[in-house]
Fold each of these.
Amino acid sequence: MTDTLIAPSLPSTAPASVGSPMGWKRRLIRFAVLGVVVGGLAFAAAVLPLREIGDAVMMLGRTGAAVAIAVVGGLLLSVMVPRTAITIACGALLGAATGAAAALAAAVIAAIATYYAGRWAGRGALKAKSGSKLARLDGWLDRRGLSAVLLVRLLPLAPYGLVGYAYGTTSVCRKRYLLGTTLAAIPSAISYAVIGAAVTKPHEMNPLTLAPALVGFALTTAIVWRWKRSARRPAAPVAA
């Protein structure tokens, strides 16, 4: 009689799926949560007595006031309050130099907050559908890197906070995004802070006030010119 050997069943070695992309249903829920939070903060910013709050903040001393204004300004930028108004207010409250530093800090705070909020809500949303226009836009932004961030930030294409949320959904790495955003924010932070300071001290206004803004315009023109020039170059032949 022949014994029949039955091999024990072995566990499947098929690899488990890891890193699966976020589903659209989950993205929509997160976008909805983010929209409610941003909308609530925007409503609070609209009804709060900001002038009285500004007076109270100035009682903290120059350094404390600058820190508080930078944090509050960053939150306001995150809920779509125009950056121009915030920067001018920084200059009017703190003076040209300190106001410019506070305005730049507020811009960086808002850039970080909106980028990571956009990452949480919809990372990879643009390239989710391969071959779509959004996927091509995501690839274009990623290829252009730092220069794309600089151009988008220097041109008033959309509210400052909205651009941050949008960049969070792209493939652009955070280092390029934060560096480009910071560099692009410097000219306008200085110019508008000086204008704001001139509201309280008109004699400080001079033609040099426009110099940083002109630098930003020249940089934008140079980036666009460089892109057009590179686009006209014929593609290199592929070796057989």
Amino acid sequence: MVTRVAVLGTGNMGSAIAERLSNSGFTIFLWNRTIEKAKSIGSKLNAEVFDTPWKAVENADIAISLVSDDNALYDIVSQMRRADGLLFINSSTVTPNASMIVSRQLKELGICYVEAPIIGNPQNLIEGNAVFLVAGERNCVRYSMGILTLAGNVIEIGNESYKASIAKLVYNSLLISSIALLSESLTLADAYGIEPNKIKEITKNTVFSQFIEKYLDRILSNSNLTSFRLSLAAKDLEYANRSGFDAGVALPIIRTAAQVFKQAENFNMKDVDYTKIYDFINPKKNKEDKNKKT
């Protein structure tokens, strides 16, 4: 019997996992808040598109949500009904509080809940080499392995679903804050006429070399390709900061990075790739972009 999977949210990541699972022989059902996006990927994959989350889920064996934030996840879960045996995998990046609330609500509906946020980009999902940070009740996690391992590798975090959410926020905070710091360092170098290649030379054979090699050119690139939207990076940093507050710990560097990304988002940069924070931080680059617009 072919397993039926409802993909809830067909942005970059949702479309990618739908494509991967479709190519692996699964029957795919799609829902997206903007239905035109779902229809576009549905046409490509010959997948059925539904106008509500519940309609997409009610005839599925497994549901996977890939939405933008807590509220979007709450909206989906509020529409779920009794569905004994359904596996609901949340691969969205949310707060631990949202994870706990959703887990309780779905459990009351007889739904098996697994938290499985993703490390990687859409191409990683399509190629099957993304990383899933997985947590939840053991029987539910075991049930999820068959589908998750088709799209990537699995790192189990624990039995409490919220621990996967925290693990993802820890990783994203480290990555996004490091991108902001590198952007500031490049801005300082640029202000004194030090070329980017010299930064590569300086950091070669140091602990920073791999990070610089992977991200420096991407930060400076004029490419319009968006792998991870800046507005989502701002949201993830804010969620990490909020989670720290809830746990009684101060995270001043993450909080500051969150404010910088939020300012850039309000500067009409919400849909650009998060590595373009450099364009906001560097006053010379910022001025060049303004001149292009005028």
Amino acid sequence: MKKWLMICMTLLFLSGCSLTGGNKPQSSSSPSEQPASSPAASPTAEVSTAPTNEPSATPVKKLTKEETADAVVQALKNKDIDGLRELIHPTKGIQFSPYVYIQKDTAQKFQKDKLPSFDDTALYVWGEHDGSGETIELTFKEYYEKFIYDHDYANSEKVGADEVIQTGNMVNNIKEVFPESYISDYHFSGFDKSFAGIDWASLIVVVEQYEDNWYVVAIASSQWTV
């Protein structure tokens, strides 16, 4: 009986120890005690300071009236149609006249985006031949060779500053058609001495101002006429 009593007391003692001893449960941390999050765990958006690649408008280089006329002649010399288009008046376009008398109602006229190329095979009516009155019907390339750049006008003998240097019996009405224009006359006094100067020739470039810049509005040929 005493032995059984000793066993019971021992068991009671051990059970009491198990209730008061052992690992205490960990309490949850307060929000202020939470460890700081790693930068890698919560990345923040970076603000780029690199320059943007947005296209900006390229300013048009302003040319004087003389520079514009020279640029037209140079584009003609180089057969640079794209360069010539950029020099054409934005609203009036460009007129071509085989003589200094411009038939304003019938002269061949093109807007800058409609100017023919040298590969264009279409026939255009450019006016009438002096003397015969026959219709001048040519492709743009043929007209260029006969009535525009038939001589090296980029290296002409003289350039008339707002004047037509020489005329035959053909009436010059350029200033009547384009009263606010500036005229550059690229002139040769002649090529063969035996002709006593009647083989003179000019390329006349007519420019007008538009929004603080100058553009070509007409190109005329001038030579001895009967």
Amino acid sequence: MTLPRRFLPSISSLRALEALDRLGSATAAATELSQTQSAVSRQLKTLEDQLGVALIVRQGRSIHLTPEAADYADKIRGALQQIAQASVKLTVNPVGGSLSLAILPTFGMRWLVPRLAEFARLHPEVTINLSTRLKPFNFVSEPFDAAIHFGKADWLGTEALRLRTERVVAVATPEFLAKHGPVSEARDVLRLPLLHIETRPNAWPAWFEAQGVSGAKVNGTIYDQFSTITQAALHGLGVALLPDYLAEQDLATGRLTSVWGDRTLISGAYYLVWPIQNGRDPALRKFRDWLVGQAEDEDLLPR
């Protein structure tokens, strides 16, 4: 269905509206858009005339959007982001396409990146761009086609491919254990300094439950990334719960040792997630299909 021309305003007018909403003044909007303030005002007036709706409230020499126009600008922001994102992808790689992927820093560097050479060999026509994000975000306002996410497959408006269920090991340096040990049962770990990761607030209680220690009250220091908590453990600051893929090298070399128990399954897994509307993107489909062969769980594809 072809929409009437009046419902398809110019990009320049929409950019002026979005910038005014985000920045709060016509002066700031004009500076960002490399235009004069009068040019921004003319574009907004043209948009008002075209839509037949009042968008601007003028108070003295300042202007701001009506509540309805601000809501409209919020929706337009996502559309402009999608247009820019599609244009960048076409420009960067007009033949094979590109994929902008948000990754968790440690999992991305230790699990995904070492495998990407194979994907590049199989699909040299696809460009993969990586950026780090620690927490879920709004795909509408961020320039990403997909993301590596830890938790559950419950990211609103997305589909997901499970990559790896997380199993953790409680580790510390041999020197730390010699000083603070012995550990003869799981409950003994409670008296040791425990290192916590911010993104897994329930990891230690879940670990103790799995070892048969119910209702454990855990304390300790908190770290925001696995890279820092690993270094803290290596420097003898306490016991860390590390994913097995992250701890295996230090365990093999003896820099770290298991404090108690074996690999323990806890709640949560690593997923590739993507907005539902991106599901047919050729670059994403090639990457997703390749990841199926890299994943370590069964029943992977979304239902």
